[in-house]
Amino acid sequence: MYRYKPKEIKHPKLKRFLSLLVIMFCVSVASVLLHSMYLGIEIKPFNVEESNQTNVNLTRTLEESKAENKEINEMIEDVSKSVVGISKLKNNGNSIFLNNSVSELGLGSGVIITDDGYILTNEHVCGGKYSTCYVTLESGKVYNGSVVWADSEIDLAIVKINVKSLSYVRLGDSESVKVADIVYAIGNPIGFEFQRTVTGGIISALNRTIKIEENNTETYMEDLIQTDATINPGNSGGPLINLNGEVIGINSVKITSAEGMGFAVPINVIKPIVEKLANNRTVEEAYLGIFGYDKNVIPYLDSRLDLDVGVYVAQVALDGPSSKAGIKVGDIITKIDSTEINKMTELRTYIYQKKPNDVVTLTIIRNNREYSIQVSLGRKS
């Protein structure tokens, strides 16, 4: 059936008018929002003086940085003049790239500590007391060196050469060193061709104890400074310095199984010996006659031992001063005279200051009881 469908009436003018109204409304709303946002923005006038001051501050910062780097460069250059090469055999000119050249020649480092030729190094580099070695100065001149003092327990030694007016280093305070301090190690990493190589890093840790296995024996080095500055075998005996150019440690060993772990013997332990040599040109070394460990080593030896303070006496020399006074293995030394002792290096440093025949009082703990024992120090040969 046919149905009537009314014809659609179009109004193009009306549509255009409505569209225009919608657009105008949107523009109005957007204008209000933008105006509100604009009112919330604080606009400061351009300040030429502030801009210039910013540029001045940046320039000053760059200049200060350059000046600081220059100071460090000059400091390292000055210290490097005092770093020497040490070998047990005379270098015959063969390249260090030959296999085992470091071990065969005994190549290592040292640092001049007085203007008249006293040199601090490792005992394993130069040898024991009264042994001889060869010392190469910055100038390239080689001199015969004599070991005038050595202590294998802390791997330090002092060598003497007959030369005057030498550049020498300043000794710092290893007790004031803090973790994360910036340090530099200087030495001959793999021989004289690379002498006075400088590596930088930080203090990674303090009072470290490491076990050394050598010749089928185990020994322990205590109270070491740990650094991530690269230390290779030939660096042994070279200085570890702070930003003031002061020696805070002598580079000694490196754990080869781990990267970024080098160690140095703290400088304070050797200061009394250096002072005696500087003043008297000789050392009369006092002798206590014990070997002990602090609390950091005890867990390696016997987990049943509980040591919170003091030094555990592990060995007593037969017929030595301590043995004659009645000190026994197992005693715990907590004081020497009025000085508290918690590290073996503290005990050594105190004894280094004494002379043979001086009398010291050891405070010990034995079977949970405290005793005071007087010991007349002997003379170390």
Structure description:
By secondary structure, this protein is an alpha+beta fold. The protein has three domains: 80-160, Trypsin-like serine proteases (Thrombin, subunit H), CATH 2.40.10; 170-272, Thrombin, subunit H; 284-379, Pdz3 Domain. It is built from eight helices and 21 strands. The chain has helices spanning 12-40, 48-80, 101-105, 123-126, 271-280, 298-301, 321-325, 344-352, and strands at 83-87, 108-112, 118-121, 132-136, 142-151, 156-160, 170-171, 182-187, 197-214, 217-227, 239-241, 246-254, 262-266, 286-287, 290-293, 311-316, 332-336, 339-340, 359-366, 369-376, 378-379. The chain is elongated, with a radius of gyration of 36 Å. The chain starts with 11 loop residues before the first helix and ends with a strand.
Q: What would the CATH topology of the largest domain be?
A: Thrombin, subunit H
Task: Choose one word for the global shape.
Answer: elongated
Count of runs of 4 or more consecutive helical residues = 8
What share of residues is helical?
Answer: 25-40%
Strand fraction equals 25-35%
Instruction: Please give the radius of gyration in angstroms.
Output: 36 Å
First-last Cα distance = 137 Å
Q: pLDDT below 50 for ≥5 consecutive residues: which ranges?
A: 92-104
User: Biggest sheet: strands side by side, in what order?
Assistant: 1-2-3-6-5-4
**How many beta-strand elements?**
21
The overall pLDDT average reads 82
Name of the CATH homologous superfamily of the largest domain: Trypsin-like serine proteases
Which structural class do the helices and strands define? alpha+beta
Largest sheet, described in full? 6 strands, antiparallel, barrel
CATH class of the largest domain equals Mainly Beta
Q: Indicate how many domains the architecture comprises.
A: 3
